[in-house]
Amino acid sequence: AQDEAAGDLYVAETIACPADLIDGIAFDPASAYVSALGLKGMFEEIEGQTYSCGVVTVPENYNEPDGHTIELFYLKLHSTSQSPAPDPLIYLSGGPGSSATYGFADIPITLSNLNQIRERRDVIAYDQRGTGYSNYLICAPFLSTYGVALDQTTDAEVAATIERLIADAQGRSLLSKAVCPLVYDTLTEVDLAQYNSVASAQDILHLAEALGYTDGYNLYGTSYGTRLTQFAMRFTPEQIRSVVIDGVDDPSRSNSALTNGKRYEQYQNIFAQCEANPACAAAYPDLSTRFATLLEKLDEEPLPLDPPLVLSAAMHGAQKLEPVLTQIDPHFFVGLAAEVNGQLNGGPAVLVPGIIQALETGDEAWLRSHLGDNTPLPETPGPAPLSLEQDEDAIDFKQAVFEQPLTALLAQAQLAADAAQSGIGAQWISVVLGDLEARLLAGEDQDQLINDLVAWSVLPYQSRSIGVVMDFANESLSAEAAAQANAIAGQMTRNDLRRTLWNIQDIAGRLGGADVRSASSKTMQYAVNCAEDVAFSTIEDTNAYVAQSPYPQLVLLPAKEFELVAFGPCVTYPKPLDASVAQLVTSTIPALVFQQALDIQTPLSWGKVVADGLPNSFFVEWSNMGHIAAGHDYHSCAGDIAAAFLDNPAREPNISCAQSANYQLQFVLPE
């Protein structure tokens, strides 16, 4: 039966926006970050006037409309026009697994660019199923179930295998990912086979209809969102007026499988830009060949740095390079490529030719003066440890994998007690965690406590009803705590229950120390990628891609390690979709294609291949940007071009701003 606490199918319900969402930096036009960049079109947002939030209930499985349902959460930015166009823009974020609503709230540059579009039409971010506030799929606390299995198994071989994997960092990581589908399949009503781009394409259509947009809609996809956009163009094209795809993923390639070797195109594009610049070409000729030779040399004999080189903040602003280098080997250029990809204006890309030349000549002084910080990096104090009334060191953890969730339980119980008066849901959570905490400190069997913690963590993935919440209390809490919790639950409204379940997800993520709603859902990421990405590739494809690279040393991991990371978890995820989904999309829907020359996540050439299958497309190359123009372009040229395109998708927009000096690499030349 349908969830008794669910709304009517395909009907939009306006709700209050979550506080942590609207407290994002992008909604603060006076923030130092917004002011420093001089972002265009930022203003004070007022809930109910300039923006609103809501949910739309849809079937988890569209083939079973009377079955389990999920809520799609959206953030609607109301158009600033007095007479907005009838066709909104719907924003699709990347990952897969990222939250689009947090993409608006936490990335001011993105909001600034989309505000240019907002001058003509509504702009809507919605969290794709499995992400953000749309049935966010957690995984973090489930690793502890292996500890219970260790305690209960009578098979010595099984126990030895689990212990060996848990003791190894890679094995532990693999177990933590592989256990998620097993928990969802065993303990919840979630069907992970429904968390893919085909289902999400259906969601977009029903979201737009529920919000009353009957004259079509436009899509703006970034990163994985470009793949989802292309799936929508293939499977639900009827109401799509036009699309913008930014940082374009090619569905005919396995992005995940090729991740191990994608850095090389960025360096090729940097060298091409240097060659096209007369001064740079004269100072640094034949960079491509020289770089290949240098990598071979560094692979055989890394350059030692004694004393260690303390990098300047500008060199590791994206936190992809270690702040202190003891040597330079090919892997330095792997991290450097990620810094270039993540930083504004290409960050250290302008230094790449000089770095190559300095390493060739052994000019360590140049490296230290251009890459280093002359003063030692200050120690950045971490957050003060939470002062617990109890001493968790006194607890003897039965299994090593119990330490993280049970230690976190003590901290979360204290925080819940402090917040108990903030609302009815907070009161209920305080009672539950307080009871589990008391039982832990009293020395109750830890296997049972872990089972109860996991049962509590998966409550959001059952039928959304007060009855399910009460059943949990009766089965997993002490009699006194169950009575108290159920008295509180009996007073909850549907909205109270919704927010309580959201809070459970957030706390459960902390119990495992990994899941953060505003970042990404790894469970959703693997559900999608295992179904439609790595599903049609093997490690041999990865190795062949690396082998054809002009710089095969630029890999993230050795092949065997990468195989475990990229392919290993898929063993327990649902079977793949039909292989036809991994074909290049062809469509006559008007498209604006943004692709970045410094992108290591979706390389420049991929966007060109996708554009070739879209005859009514316009292509814009961004020379000094990494992945996603909307998130890098603080001059708002990307937003202006997109807004002009959406005004008339049949006419090529003026892209001259993208070719201005603001978007060119200004290489550092020899003095």
Task: Write a concise keyword list for the protein shown above.
671 residues, 11 strands, 28 helices, nine-stranded mixed β-sheet
Short description:
Helices cover 45% and strands 10% of the residues. With 671 residues, it is an alpha/beta fold. Among the domains are: 12-136 and 192-252 and 583-663, Alpha/Beta hydrolase fold, catalytic domain (Rossmann fold); 140-172 and 395-512, no CATH class.
Description:
It is a single chain. The protein has 671 residues and is an alpha/beta fold. Among the domains are: 12-136 and 192-252 and 583-663, 3-Layer(aba) Sandwich (Rossmann fold); 140-172 and 395-512, no CATH class. The protein is 45% helix and 10% strand. It contains 28 helices and eleven strands. The chain has helices at 19-22, 32-37, 100-106, 108-118, 145-152, 156-167, 169-187, 197-210, 224-235, 255-258, 264-276, 278-283, 287-300, 330-342, 352-361, 364-371, 403-418, 424-441, 446-457, 466-476, 479-489, 494-512, 522-532, 539-547, 559-566, 604-612, 629-632, 637-647; strands spanning 12-15, 51-59, 69-77, 89-92, 123-126, 217-222, 240-246, 303-310, 324-328, 591-596, 617-622. The strands form two sheets. The protein has a nine-stranded mixed beta sheet, sandwiched between helices. A two-stranded antiparallel sheet has the order 8-9. Helix 26 links the parallel strand 10 and strand 11. Helix 5 (145-152) packs antiparallel against helix 19, helix 17 packs across helix 22 and helix 19 crosses helix 22. It starts with 11 loop residues before the first strand and ends in a 24-residue tail after the last helix.
